[in-house]
């Protein structure tokens, strides 16, 4: 076993563009906010799961 870092995003990396549905049902695309707003992406992989 080695102590190699896991692949994936790192602090400061640019996020890939994506589109998701908002809570109101409209589509939200990340690139629409680029340069106009500061965007913070947070992922909770175990949110709303049991255990």
Note down, in words, how this protein is organized.
With 51 residues, this protein is mostly loops. It has no helices and two strands. It has strands at residues 19-21, 27-29. A two-stranded antiparallel ribbon has the order 1-2. A hairpin with a 5-residue loop joins strand 1 and strand 2 (27-29). The relative contact order is 0.14. The mean pLDDT is 82.
Strand-helix topology:
Elements: E1 19-21, E2 27-29
Antiparallel strand pairs: 1-2
Main beta sheet: strand number and arrangement?
Answer: 2 strands, antiparallel
Gyration radius, rounded: 15 Å
**Topology pattern, helix = H, strand = E:** EE
Largest sheet strand order:
1-2
Which structural class best describes the helix and strand composition? Answer: little secondary structure
User: Uncertain segments of ≥5 residues (pLDDT<50)?
Assistant: none
A few lines on this structure:
By secondary structure, this protein is mostly loops. 0% of the residues lie in helices and 12% in strands.
List keywords for this structure.
51 residues, little secondary structure, flat, 0% helix
């Amino acid at each position: 076993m080695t102590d190699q870092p896991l692949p994936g995003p790192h602090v400061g990396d640019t996020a890939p563009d994506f589109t998701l549905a908002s809570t109101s049902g409209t589509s939200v695309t990340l690139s629409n906010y680029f340069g106009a707003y500061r965007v913070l992406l947070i992922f909770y992989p175990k949110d709303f799961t049991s255990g």
